[in-house]
Specification:
With about 130 residues, this protein is an all-alpha fold. It has one domain. About 85% of the residues lie in helices and about 0% in strands. The longest helix has about 90 residues. It is rod-shaped.
């Protein structure tokens, strides 16, 4: 978004509306306005142009916001899908870690058994006959 308020479409629309209000006030405050009927159609056209410009700017801003919202929603859906995939991969990793832990524990138990068996065999070999 731009920080320049003169470039902001909503601020420009507001300026158009203010111009339309000013023109309307000038028309309503003129004394003997009926004497100035000749420029009246031009002023009405100018007010209509200002209002149309304001409406166009607001519509463009709404469309831009709608597009931005659509892109944000698409990015949000993509992020949700990525998180779901990551959870699946992580769940698989957790299972693998659990399986490796169980295998290490079983190997440690087997190592202790083999060490005891080795000690027993060594003690039998070292016994005098």
């Amino acid at each position: 978004m731009t920080n320049n308020t003169h470039d902001d479409p909503l601020n420009r629309a507001s300026a158009h509306l203010e111009t339309a209000r000013r023109l309307g006030r000038e028309l309503s405050t003129q004394k003997r306005w009926f004497a100035h009927l000749r420029p009246l159609p031009k002023v009405i056209d100018r007010v209509a142009d200002e209002l149309a410009a304001a409406i166009d700017l607001v519509a463009a801003t709404v469309a831009s916001d709608r597009d931005r919202t659509s892109h944000l929603e698409a990015n949000h859906r993509l992020l949700d899908q990525s998180i779901a995939r990551l959870e699946l991969v992580t769940a698989g990793d957790e299972q693998l870690i659990d399986d490796l832990g169980a295998a290490i524990e079983a190997a440690q138990i087997e190592l202790i058994r083999l060490e005891r068996q080795h000690d027993l065999l060594r003690s039998r070999l070292d016994q005098p006959r």
